Amino acid sequence: MALDGKIVITCACTGAETTVAQNPALPITPDQVAATAQECRAAGAAILHLHVRDDQGNATQSVARFKEAIDAIRRKTDIVIEITTGGAVGDTAEERLRPVKELEPEMASLDCGTVNFGDEYIVNTLPTMREFAAEFKRRGVRATLECFDLGHVYASHYLVKEGLIEAPFHYGFVLNVPGAVPYSVENLSAFIKAMPAGADYTVMGIGRSSLPAQYGAVANGGWIRVGFEDNVFFSKGVLAKSNAQLVERAARIAGEAGLSPASPDDVRKYLKLKG
After folding, report:
1. Which residues contact 109 (CB under 8 A, 6 or more apart)?
2. pLDDT in tens, 182-222
């Protein structure tokens, strides 16, 4: 799981809900996202989790906007691009899946159940999960099985048993979303125990749980995600200067545990991405 002494760091640099008012350094345009990807790659990130925004700064699942951002990133860096199919609150399943169908990325997130999202909620039924997983398999897209609840981990087993998701399995544990499961050592342990044998996982701590979740990931052999989608602060009351600053700290924490950041090519080989 440690990739011979290496750890995979993902940066979720924009998200669907974070605003420039919350952190003025939030990258919005494709060129801003591409510059951020380059900085984060240099800081130690191997994967960029990609949401895109329209000209007004609103979250969108526009295929054209995703392509514009992906092309801009590719001109600057070899970082692995993992696009979202979670989208934003209110997006339909068809809207969320369309970029996978038309762009066929190396990786994409696949939400494994319905979840409270603050005062809103995101719907993912088992039939929707099957539809997404089948499309991922058809297009050769590696899924990150995003789980906001312990039941989501168990729901993912249906996809595995039905052959819709094939090894190597990669999970994303999203902890501390308001209305969902908070981050704790005990909760993370329960999620880990519920995975299929041999699976890997990235830990995502939302808000103030971001830093404890990074330590939890390192201590338990998991991978790390940071970025403005999850947390805009560097420390209490102090805004992060950039996504790269958060990646740099994650790499430093991992380094203190004797781990070095994996490269995009390490990830491509390990997760058997199509490149």
Report:
1. 49, 82, 83, 84, 85, 86, 143, 144, 146, 172
2. 999 999 999 999 999 999 999 999 999 999 999 999 999 99
Sign of the C-alpha dihedral computed for residues 263, 267, 270 and 272 taken in this order? negative
pTM across the whole model: 0.97
Sign of CA dihedral 93, 99, 101, 107: negative
Cα–Cα distance, 68 to 48 (Å, whole number): 15
Residue 36 domain-assigned (yes or no): yes
Domain membership of residue 1 (yes or no) is no
| Structure-block tokens of residue 250 | 């994650």
Residue 33 lies in a domain: yes
Residue type, 21: A
The strand pairing partners of 115, in sequence order, are 122
Residue 190 located in a structural domain: yes
Structural domains of the chain, count: 1
Residue with the two structure tokens 């719907």: 123
Helices (H), the chain: 30-43, 63-74, 93-103, 126-139, 150-161, 185-194, 210-220, 243-256, 264-270
Q: Point out which residues pair with 142 in neighbouring strands.
A: 107
Report the DSSP pairing between strands 47-50 and 260-261.
unpaired
Q: Which domain holds residue 168?
A: 6-270
**Four-residue CA torsion sign, 105, 111, 249, 118:** positive
